[in-house]
From TrEMBL:
Catalytic activity field: (6S)-5-formyl-5,6,7,8-tetrahydrofolate + ATP = (6R)-5,10-methenyltetrahydrofolate + ADP + phosphate
Pfam families (UniProt xref): 5-FTHF_cyc-lig
Name the record gives this protein: 5-formyltetrahydrofolate cyclo-ligase
Domain of life: Bacteria
Record organism: Raineya orbicola
Amino acid sequence: MLKREIREFYKKKRQKLSELEWLTKNRAITDRLFHWNLLEKVSYLHLFLPITRQKEPDLWSFIYQVWEEKPHITLLVSRTHPETNSLSHYIFTEDTEIHENRWGVPEPLSTETFEKLSEIDMVLIPLLAFDTQGYRVGYGKGFYDRFLSECPKALKVGISLFEALQEPISDTNEYDVKLDFCITPLQLYDFSFPKS
Ligand SMILES: Nc1nc2c(c(=O)[nH]1)N(C=O)[C@@H](CNc1ccc(C(=O)N[C@@H](CCC(=O)O)C(=O)O)cc1)CN2
Ligand SMILES: Nc1ncnc2c1ncn2[C@@H]1O[C@H](COP(=O)(O)OP(=O)(O)OP(=O)(O)O)[C@@H](O)[C@H]1O
């Protein structure tokens, strides 16, 4: 199946979720994530804040738990620059002010950018869908493909409300950065072995 078709299908599928289904899926994902043993090795964790009108996976409860119970982890979030198709990155604390951009993405209002991308240990990536090979489908603007190529050390972890596609994504391209793991309400998928 083509990314374009998968994108449209999963956007609709997300919109059809009831509030309770969405909350239940989010709870399963954030519980699995918080208790994942790999987190103990993470110092810098990049994550995303949900576009609620798109019913994206919502990591807010995980974020509050990290601030309270895992102080060894520094959280990072991004601001989007549509003119250059790029992201800039900021340390995210309880004091960070947030506003919504034109796509409804909550973004930090911070001024001091985080430049040490090589130190990021893990990136949590919002997915529309993914296949059993670890290829992913996002909104198709390439923000994450560009960003991920700049942080080679980081484990790339997809976050998806739905399970893996049964058929492969047919139009993968040279820029696609594969996932190492994916967390869903039902499973932790491990694509990290064998490393390609
Ligand atoms: N929560 C979150 N943050 C993120 C992303 C994301 O997917 N989710 N991004 C991932 O790249 C980047 C922002 N890029 C985005 C690109 C498109 C849309 C989006 O909603 N597109 C709509 C059209 C909206 C419109 O034109 O008004 C769509 O495609 O339906 C959102 C974010 C960085 N931050
Ligand atoms: N490093 C890069 N340099 C230039 N163009 C890139 C780069 N990475 C991705 N792109 C372009 O950005 C677009 C990304 O589209 P694609 O369908 O792969 O998005 P996606 O898998 O939904 O990912 P994303 O969540 O990153 O938007 C493609 O047109 C691709 O050619």
